[in-house]
Amino acid sequence: MIFRKISQFVLFTILVIALAACGSESKSDDSGNAADKSDENKGTITIGQINWPENIAVTNMWKAILEDKGYNVKLKLIEMGPQMAALAEGDLDVAPEIWLPVQDKSYYKEYKDEANFFEEPWYENGKVGLAVPTYMEDVNSIKDLNEHKEKFDGEIIGFEPGAGTMLVTEDVIKEYGLDYELVDSSTPVMISTIKKAVKQEKPIVAPLWKPHYIFSEVDLKFLEDPKNTFGGVEKIYMATREGFSSDFEKVSKWMKNFKLNDKQLGELMVYTKNNQDNPIKGAEKWVEENQDLIDKWMK
């Protein structure tokens, strides 16, 4: 009887110790996993995206870089006007593409006190204007357009309404007294319309910009702009919401160090274009091949 009680006590003691050990291991694993997750996920950054080739390329590049560093990155497809408003309201972290001094000057003036516009551009060789196919030898200046209105059906084929270049094109129509309608569409529709017209050697005029892969695929020329309404060389800047630099100090510093030249941006655009269905794959490949450049931004 006594032996049985002792045996039961011993078994009970062993069971308690075993359960305690399991609980201790479980707590250790949970805390370890939580720590790992905390290290891996350094916060969520939402970047505004517009369906422009260079924008798709750069936003996916940053997604690839930052997710490799442990951040969660969301790309939010949103047109320029709403994008700047969302940035000012704090609903968006990063607006990666502001063209200055001309194209997006209206947005800069409106939101400069509500968002943080970077002082230095990440790209310094932009150009914007009205473009036509090179086979249109009689149309070389914006001033020539009214004379050839019937050829173009009185239409300038545009892209997303609200984009800075679309707003400037409206100014160009007024400044030059053009009897034309600026047709809203989307960037993919505009590009496909240009390609189709060039293939059939038909007249077409559209507001375009460099860098853009369309210039390597079809022969186009910018029309002279004697009144300089589109401006000269445009530079591309980033902007972030108020408080972003304190919430994501390292990322803010990296983005301020970010620079691309024509060759680098051109290659990045090709990589993402070749992976149109999943541009992040192209961006990841470019990031892998340009790690030395990216390391400079991370200093």
Descriptors:
single chain, 299 residues, alpha+beta, D-Maltodextrin-Binding Protein, domain 2, 2 domains, 6-stranded antiparallel sheet, two-stranded parallel ribbon, 12 helices, 10 strands, 48% helix, globular
The number of distinct helices, counting runs of at least 4 residues, comes to 12
Order of helices and strands: HEHEHEHEEEHEHEHEEHHHHH
Q: Assign the CATH superfamily of the largest domain.
A: Periplasmic binding protein-like II
**Biggest sheet, in brief?**
6 strands, antiparallel
Distance between the termini: 76 Å
Total strands = 10
What would you call the structural class? Answer: alpha+beta
How would you explain this protein's 3D organization?
It is a single chain. With 299 residues, the chain is of the alpha+beta class. The chain folds into two domains: 42-124 and 234-297, Periplasmic binding protein-like II (D-Maltodextrin-Binding Protein, domain 2, 3-Layer(aba) Sandwich), CATH 3.40.190.10; 125-222, D-Maltodextrin-Binding Protein, domain 2, CATH 3.40.190.100. The protein is 48% helix and 18% strand. The protein has twelve helices and ten strands. The chain has helices at residues 2-40, 53-68, 80-89, 105-111, 164-175, 187-199, 214-217, 244-247, 249-257, 262-273, 279-289, 291-297; strands spanning 44-49, 72-77, 94-100, 115-117, 123-133, 155-157, 181-183, 206-210, 220-222, 234-241. Strands 3, 4, 5, 8, 9 and 10 form a six-stranded antiparallel sheet that branches. A two-stranded parallel sheet has the order 1-2. Strand 6, helix 5 (164-175) and strand 7 (181-183) form a beta-alpha-beta unit. Helix 2 (53-68) crosses helix 10 (262-273) and helix 10 (262-273) packs antiparallel against helix 11. The chain starts with a helix and ends with a helix.
